[in-house]
Amino acid sequence: MAARWDSxxxxxxxxxxxxxxxSSTAVSSFVRSSSLxxxxxxxxxxxxxxxxxxxxxxxxxxxGDHEGKGVIVSWVTPDEPGSNTVLYWAENSTLxxxxxxxxxxxxxxxxxxxYIHHCTIEDLEFxxxxxxxxxxxxxxxxxxxTTPPGxxxxxxxxxxxxxxxxxxxxxxxxxxxxxxxxxxAYQPWIWTAGNHEIDFAPQLGEAIPFKPxxxxxxxxxxxxxxxxxxxxxxxxxxxxxxxxxxxxAFRKYTPQYKWLEKKFPKVNRSETPWLIVLMHCPLYxxxxxxxxxxxxxxxxxxxxxxxYKVDVVFAGYERMSNIAYNVTNALCSPVSNQxxxxxxxxxxxxxxxxxxxxxxxxxxxxxxYREASFxxxxxxxxxxxxxxxxxxxxxxxxxxxxxxxxxxxxxxKPSGELPRAAI
Length: 423
Ligand SMILES: *[C@@H]1O[C@H](CO)[C@@H](O)[C@H](O)[C@H]1NC(C)=O
Ligand SMILES: *[C@@H]1O[C@H](CO)[C@@H](O)[C@H](O)[C@H]1NC(C)=O
Ligand SMILES: *[C@@H]1O[C@H](CO)[C@@H](O)[C@H](O)[C@H]1NC(C)=O
Ligand SMILES: *[C@@H]1O[C@H](CO)[C@@H](O)[C@H](O)[C@H]1NC(C)=O
Ligand SMILES: *[C@@H]1O[C@H](CO)[C@@H](O)[C@H](O)[C@H]1NC(C)=O
Ligand SMILES: *[C@@H]1O[C@H](CO)[C@@H](O)[C@H](O)[C@H]1NC(C)=O
Ligand SMILES: *[C@@H]1O[C@H](CO)[C@@H](O)[C@H](O)[C@H]1NC(C)=O
Fold this sequence. Notes:
Layout: E1 5-10, E2 57-63, E3 71-77, E4 85-90, E5 97-100, E6 102-104, E7 107-108, E8 111-112, E9 115-121, E10 129-134, E11 141-146, E12 157-162, H1 170-184, E13 189-192, H2 211-216, E14 232-236, E15 239-243, H3 255-266, E16 274-278, H4 295-307, E17 312-315, E18 319-320, E19 323-325, E20 334-336, E21 342-345, E22 367-369, E23 375-381, E24 386-393, E25 400-408
Bound molecules: 2-acetamido-2-deoxy-beta-D-glucopyranose (7 copies).
One 2-acetamido-2-deoxy-beta-D-glucopyranose binds next to loops.
């Protein structure tokens, strides 16, 4: 794994599939067993509550500002609020600094959360390893992270992509929080709310959408002048990442629309060549589940994606290349356009509903590859023109790259190379 590695988490609902490496449309011959994987027992080591009175658990970090010099540290204490302070220091420094955060709790039906802490550390140095400590007394815990290099056009950087979700059961949010800690406490995740995170359950008296998600994950949305934590942007190394919310109002005149309308023209591709959009619901999908669910959003936003040359849109299912509907012909048959993004669907972290396998037949020409499986992706940005995307199936006994593709920047087109498109 690359030394610098960051993660997107697309919290997606229905499940996995993806890709291959030929340029025509294809369906993978790999067939994942259809039996549901058994849940890991709750007494598994990965869900273990750390020892010590009121010991911090579910520790995770998130980028805390627009450029990558800030980090939000979040953790949960079970017995009492305890301390809101994060102690932190640069790798080779003896100077220990403190940042102070907030603590909150929330109720969901008959569940009451433990004490959830969020603390933003600001003004860190780029490209530096920091240690940090949360908790007090004999239950302090130490972790570390490395800040990204400063924003710049040819800064290589590796991102990991996965999606997953725990659903309505808030006790599962806690076990899942402890499960991901071994990664999320060390590498910032970029969160995108999915349909399971809506947690809209008026029958249980829970009519405010995204309640657990919003309480558990604090995001740097104000740094990008967003007015809600469900759509926001960050810059990291050579990438400009825009997170959209499929499940918040998005039509014309809504806050999300107005924010995006101002956002796209501001992206400076000389500083951040890679323009990446994350959303939960795919605009193009040829799976039966959720088929055409992204259509209202596509109608509104695809013209901007093409106009502003978005490089890649990550959502939840199969990979599709370089397509844009020709919306003027009323037939809505997708046309190839080298300004259009590649749509990669990575809805494959796993879920409790099992695989969504039914695909529409025949496979549409705009679909480059599909596989009903679980796995994760890695996006390796090499320079301003080239990025490599690899997809790793998770059911093999070894780390296998089931599919990969070179992505060519839409704005800084590599010269002399043939565009790679499914149609
Ligand atoms: C932590 O400290 C408390 C209070 O001093 C003590 O009761 C407890 O046994 C200690 N726990 C551990 C794991 O050392
Ligand atoms: C910090 O110390 C480590 C180990 O001695 C060394 O490899 C690294 O280069 C140092 N970093 C800085 C920024 O001085
Ligand atoms: C909460 O309600 C669920 C569903 O009715 C039930 O299974 C669970 O035991 C309840 N939990 C508590 C703490 O009462
Ligand atoms: C884009 O960024 C470059 C490099 O920082 C700068 O020279 C240029 O003025 C910026 N363009 C705009 C429109 O701000
Ligand atoms: C889109 O459709 C219109 C009307 O049929 C046609 O004139 C135009 O050439 C099409 N554009 C592309 C890029 O296919
Ligand atoms: C691609 O889309 C853009 C924006 O709609 C349009 O200006 C351009 O003509 C299209 N190119 C092709 C080859 O259709
Ligand atoms: C960008 O990276 C690609 C893939 O590693 C490489 O082939 C290409 O030469 C690089 N471009 C420049 C300008 O270094």
